[in-house]
Structure formats: structure tokens, C-alpha cells
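Internal ticket - ligand job 733, uridine-5'-diphosphate-glucose:
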Amino acid sequence: MENPNPLLHKIIPMRRTWFNRVFAAIYTCAIFALFYHHFQNLSINSNTKISILMLLADLVLALNSITYQAFRMSPIRRVVFPQNIPQILKNESEYPALDIFICTADPYKEPPMGVVNTALSVMAYDYPTEKLSVYVSDDGGSQLTLFAFMEAAKFARHWLPFCRKHDLVERCPEAYFASQIGEFTEGRDEIEMAYREMKITVEKVLERGDVNGVNHITADEEVLKSFSKCSGIDGFTSRNHPTIIQILLESSINRDVQGHALPNLIYISREKIATAAHQFKAGALNMLLRVSGIMTNAPIILTLDCDSYSNDPTTPLRALCYYLDPKIKSDLAYVQFPQIFHGINKNDIYGSEWKSYVQINAYGMDGLMGPNYIGTGSFFQRRALFGDPLSILLPEIPELSPDYHVCKPIHDNEILALADHVAGCRYEDQTRWGYEIGFNYGSLVEDFYTGYRLHCKGWKSILCYPKRPAFLGSSPIALNDMLCQSKRWFMGYFEIICCKFSPLTFGLKSLNLLQALCYIHYISWPFWSIPVPVYAFLPQLALINSTPIFPKVSDPWFYLYAFLFVGAIMQEFIDYMTTGGTIPKWWNYQKSWLIRGLTSFPFAMLEYILGCFGFSATGFNVTSKVVDDEQTSRYDKGYFVFGVSSPMFLTITMAAIINLVAFSSGIEQAIFGKERFENVCLQICLTGYVVVHSWPLYEAIILRTDKGKMPLKITLASVALVLVLCIVFPLLF
Ligand SMILES: O=c1ccn([C@@H]2O[C@H](COP(=O)(O)OP(=O)(O)O[C@H]3O[C@H](CO)[C@@H](O)[C@H](O)[C@H]3O)[C@@H](O)[C@H]2O)c(=O)[nH]1
Ligand SMILES: [Mn+2]
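stdout (C-alpha cells):
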């Protein structure tokens, strides 16, 4: 007999929880002891300036470590059983509709073929086709992206049946053709040829920067019409143009080569004028929320970055395992899949996996109110973007309400006119969009902020972490790109700390305490710009000047320092290794924190402060997804890619140099007995730790000759600045 309530999901608590709790208690006590020691020191020490700086640094580290424990109080893992869904949903028509949002912003940083691949991979989902709608938002307002999508719509007619026929797992064409070399699949050669042809055409057009003159375009009148919208207007730029909506595929009309329905595919570039704030990605998402509301109004929405293609066609069914459970659905805002990247090198030299963020901490929040929203790979309940779980907040027009039933076809003139209206750049003026309805404005990490605000309203979220990654995205391989990306995030965190809804005030009141501590942990990341530079320069400069600043080996306080340092590192190490990490990756992740602490964090702080005084405008600088073969090969071999003369390289080069100097000086002092080894032991150990981490820098400064090495300008400037520091230090302290 069939089970009326088949099992869809299950929770598995993690075994280490008790150990975590005991450790948290001991570690917190040790931190309090440290501050006792600090204040004792302040009252007797002659060198108060150094002590105050060290105290400040330790305060930030303490806040970070204590809040870090919140993630470890009740971590859980979950399992889903999508194979049981057919017992509940007997017909395809019973499946809830799914609207998929893909955002892109610049055809030169985000190559249209990449965006097209993402779209094709989700159009081919194992899900009733008539229920799928893919909406592409193009903030670049580019005819090149539109052109690529017109080609993709034609290709989809072949690609979707091909995936279905061979039951492919890999449904992103580029990834499929790259992975299956040598295997025989019937019809593969033909379809690969069609794909390559499309790719060449699109790339040629991109190179020329213009679609006019491509032979088969001029033949098609419909196509001409939409392009004339893009380019026929005087002064048309990506920042100044009317709304462009192009229905590329309509499920009720278009068929694939086997006569099956195709999903809806709609291209939209919202209206832009120079004087209106367009709110970056959050603005784009809200526009998509409205346009999709008018056209299909699906109850479930998947948001994707242009580079996160689907790596598993069953993903929507996994999300459905939660949305089909009425007990869970009532206050479930989103099901978050982790952000996993392809193309990261073997030992992940930049720590780009963000393992603690993506995996370890996410399991921890999942046991509380749920993981934070990370902008991509998230299945939202549309209703959650309108008010709290108990009371719905209705938008200005009834057609935008999450429970409105659309009864006209997409191409209907009324629908199109209304869609055009709600995509207008003045539409949101004097409305609650971006503040109480939809995705939240006010932070460069709109994703994090939106998830946080939803949790504050009482919504929950769930982490779905299947073995096979559901999505794969791209991650920067040039160090400067990576640092600029983190800098943008940290500026976003600053905006959140300082806003009216800061987790430090509003969050603590509205959330469960542990969940609030998790959010505080993240928003306190930018303050790493205090301890890392302090610990990277101060003990070193003091060592060069033979000034001991930590307790000596015979002092009992020495063991406290040792415990705090080793304890923190070991906790991370255990977390890392028990979630499938390797030792080199863990080591590099440590390094990445030191690097960010000297670059992205302080630069974000500086830029944020300058911004407050009106000296710099904060903006969403899109991360480049262009693949540079030369850089990639260097990165794949495990080398840092410097190359450009970025000011952010100055601080890390300075730290590398000064630590080397201090380390040699410390060893010399110890050997020649000027300062007894036990007095400066901790300083020498710390300096040695940084020196070992700085190896890639020494290599890039001295040994490398390739284009990715450290520019000579940066090295010379750093040496000069280090000299200045060495001269100034004895005068100041
Ligand atoms: O004005 C804009 C700026 C960006 N985007 C899109 O936003 C996405 C993310 O941009 P990206 O440059 O890749 O930023 P990342 O830092 O890699 O993105 C991470 O961090 C962002 C918040 O800073 C989140 O929105 C993303 O989901 C998350 O992957 C891309 O698809 C862009 O096309 C827009 O649509 N409009
Ligand atoms: Mn990205």
C-alpha cells in the first residue's frame, strides 16, 4: 500500500556538538582571562601605546572568536528524498510553477556565451517544461547579449530533447562537451557542431561589438525590430535606455524539434536613466520579481548569477522536498544551495572555496533559523518577499500580489504593456520596493542583507547540500580581482553595521540569540582590518627594536596566549578536515585571511569612510568572468597572479618584507643573547608564521620572471615604506 505521507526530508544532528559546546565554554573563559591580563598590563606597563593597540586588536579577535562559537552550537545536516515526490504529485500539472531569474550586467566582463550556458542548463531541468520560465535581466542593455539569447533560443530546440533522450546529468552545453570527450553518444557530433557554430557566431559579434551585418540577422524582421530598440535610439547606452522586453520562447507556442513544449524564455533590460538610482543587482531582481509576477507569477523563484550553471537537473525537486511539506512551507523563505566554484586550483591558493562560510557555518545556521542568502542558487517562496509569515504586504497593483492568478498568455498586449510599465526606472518611486517588499536595498551585499531581514521578520531558511554540487560558478583567478570582490563585500557589511537594522541592535532584538551572533560574526569581518595589520607589523617592529611585548616563556600568561592561538587554529583545522578539506587547502585558507586582513578589509574600511564624507562613490563593480588562458595556466600551476600594480599589493609586500627582517633580527638577538630568547619567543614564532605564509610573495618578488610576478614598482615602493616605518617606530613608541 502507498504511504499517504512519504518521507521527503530528514535531519541528522552532528556528533561533535557536545565537544563544540564544552570547547566554546573553555575558550570564552580564556578570552576573559586575556582581557584581565590586558588591563593588568595597562596599569603597570610603561609602553601603553603598544598595549592599547594590542588590546584593540584582541578585542576584535575576541568578538570574532566568541561569535564563531554560535555556528557550532547545533549544526545539522539534512537529507532529501526527491524519489518520493511522484507519490504526492501524481500529474505533471500538479507541480508548482518555477520562475528562474538570471542576472547579467556587462557583456565584456560576463561573456554572453557564459550566460547562455547558464540559461540552457536550467531550461533543461528535470521538471515539467510548461512550468518553467527563465527570465534574463541584462543590466548591460546590450544587443550582444540579446543576440546571444536569440541564438540560444534556437539551439534550445535541439538541446533540450537531446538532454532528455540521453538523460544527461551535465546539461550545461559547454561543460557537457568538455567532459565527455571520447565517449560515444548518438547524435552528439551533430549537436556539438551546432553548438560550436553558435558559439563562433556569438563571439564574432562580440568581438565586432555590433550585430549589424551578421547575415542571418538582417533576414529576420522580428529580430530587426528588437535590435532597433537597442541601438536605433540616439544616445543609447547601458545607463540610458528604455525598457527592452523580448519574449524569446513561449511555452504555449514554441516547440522543440520533437514537438514537445519549451520553457518560457524572456529577455529584459530594465529602463535606465542617468538620474535614477538603479540599485544594482537588488534593483534588477526586484524588476524581475515584478515582470515575472505580471507574466507567470510562479510561487517559487530561483535566483542565479549569470555564471552559476546547473550541474544537476534534479535540483528543483530537491527544493520541492521542503516546499511540499506544509509544516515547513508556512514560514520557509528560501532553500539555499551552496555556492561552489569550478576551476579552483588543486590547493585553492586564494582560499576561494570559502569553506567555513559556505559549508561549516552554513550547517551551523541551518540548525538555528537557517543559512544566510548568498545571492545565487536559492529557491525562494515568492510570498516571502511580501511581508512576514503571518501578514502579507500587498504591492501597489493587484497583479503583483504573490497569489494573483495570471490568466492571459505572455504575449498578450496588456501583459506586455504592464510588464513594460513595472520595469520602468521610476516605477519604484514612493513605493515600498527594496525596503519592505522584495530584495533589500542599502547594502552592496544585497543578498546577505535580504536574507538577514527575512530572518528578522520571522522567516526561516534551509540549507540543501547535496553530494553532487547543484550549481557551479566561476571565481576570480587574478589576485587583484579576488581582493576587489572581497572589498566590495566588506563595504556591504559596513553598510549593514551602520544601518538602522544593524544586527548589533535590531538583530539582537528580533532574532534568536545564536542566529544574531552568527550575523554579528559576519558583519564584524571588516574589523579584521585592525588585528591583522597590528599583528603583522607591531610585534615585528618591536622585535627589531628589541622590545618584548608578549609574556616570556616562564610567565604563566604565556600559556594563555599559546592556548588561544593554538585553540583557534585547531578548531578551524578540525572543522576543515571533517568537512572533506585537505591540509594544503586549510593552510592556504589561513593565508587568505592574512592577505585579506591586509588588503580588502582595510581598503574597504578606508573607502567606506571616504564614501561617508562624499569622497568616493560606492558601486557594484562586476567581477570579470572572462577566461584569460595565460593567467589560467599560471594559476592552475599554483602560482599567485599579481601582474597589475594594485595599491592592495603594497601592504602585503610590506608585511612580507618586514616580517623577514624582523625574523632574522629576532634569531640574531636570540643567538647572540642580546635579548634572551624566552623574552621574544612568542614574537619570533608569530613572525616565523607570517614569513612561512609569505612564501608566494618572496617568490613573486625575487624568483619569478613571468607576467604574473610582482611589479617592480610595488616592490620598490614597499621597501621605501618599510624603511620609513622602521625609522618612525622608535620615535612614536
Ligand atoms: O548592477 C548590477 C551588478 C551586478 N549584477 C549581477 O550580479 C551578479 C553577481 O555579480 P558578481 O560580479 O559575480 O559578484 P560576486 O561578488 O561574484 O557575487 C556574489 O556577491 C554578490 C553580492 O555582492 C551577490 O549578489 C552574488 O550573488 C554573489 O555570488 C552577476 O550575475 C551580475 O551580472 C547585476 O545584475 N546588476
Ligand atoms: Mn560572481
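Auto-summary: The mean pLDDT is 94. The two ends are 81 Å apart (CA to CA).
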